[in-house]
Design goal:
mainly alpha
C-alpha cells in the first residue's frame, strides 16, 4: 500500500506495522510507533504539500526561510548572513548560497555599511516583500486546510503536546545518570 493511497479512515499502515511486530516479536513494546511513526508519516505529507506550495512561486523552501526571516525582522527588512544563520537557518555559508539565488531573482539586495565595509546586510526589495507576503499568506491558508480536521481546542492541545514531545526528544540526548 502506498502512502498516497492510505487515508485515516482506510487501513491504518502504522497499526498494521504494530500488528506485524506483535506477531513476529511479541516481547517488544512497540507503543512508541503509535506516536512517532504517525508523526513521521504526517511530517512527510506536510513536507510534500509545503514544498509544492512554495515551489509554485519559483522559490525553494530554503529561500522561503530566508525571505520569512527578513520579513519577520521588520522594516527595513534586513539582516546579516550571521543573523540569518542565528534565526534558525543553516551555516552562514549555506545562507550565502541562498542569498545569491534570491538576489539574482530580484527578491533581495546586499547592502554594505558605510562605516564598516565588512558588514553586509541582505534587504528585501519591494518585489521580495510582496512575494514573501503573498507566499506566507498562502502558506498559512495551506496549513489551516491541513489542520481542518482538528477543532481549535484540539489544535491548542496538540501544540502543547508537540512542544512537550520536542522537549522529551531533546532531553533524551542527555546521558543517563551514572553513565560514563
Amino acid at each position: 500500500m502506498t502512502m498516497a493511497a492510505s487515508r485515516p479512515g482506510d487501513r491504518d499502515a502504522v497499526a498494521l506495522v504494530i500488528e506485524d511486530w506483535a506477531r513476529e516479536r511479541p516481547e517488544l513494546d512497540t507503543s512508541p510507533l503509535e506516536v512517532l511513526a504517525r508523526l513521521h508519516r504526517s511530517f512527510l505529507r506536510y513536507s510534500t504539500r509545503l514544498t509544492a506550495s512554495i515551489e509554485r512561486h519559483g522559490l525553494s523552501v530554503a529561500g522561503f526561510d530566508v525571505l520569512t526571516a527578513l520579513r519577520r525582522a521588520g522594516a527595513p527588512y534586513r539582516l546579516t548572513a550571521g543573523q540569518l544563520a542565528d534565526s534558525g537557518l543553516v551555516s552562514s555559508a549555506g545562507v550565502t548560497l541562498r542569498i545569491d539565488r534570491l538576489e539574482k531573482d530580484g527578491l533581495l539586495v546586499r547592502e554594505r555599511v558605510a562605516d564598516d565595509r565588512r558588514v553586509v546586510y541582505s534587504r528585501l526589495t519591494e518585489k521580495g516583500l510582496a512575494t514573501v507576503d503573498t507566499v506566507f499568506s498562502e502558506h498559512l491558508d495551506n496549513e489551516d486546510r491541513m489542520l481542518a480536521g482538528l477543532s481549535p481546542a484540539e489544535r491548542r492541545r496538540l501544540a502543547v503536546l508537540l512542544r512537550k514531545l520536542e522537549i522529551s526528544i531533546l532531553d533524551s540526548d542527555e546521558e543517563p545518570e551514572g553513565a560514563e
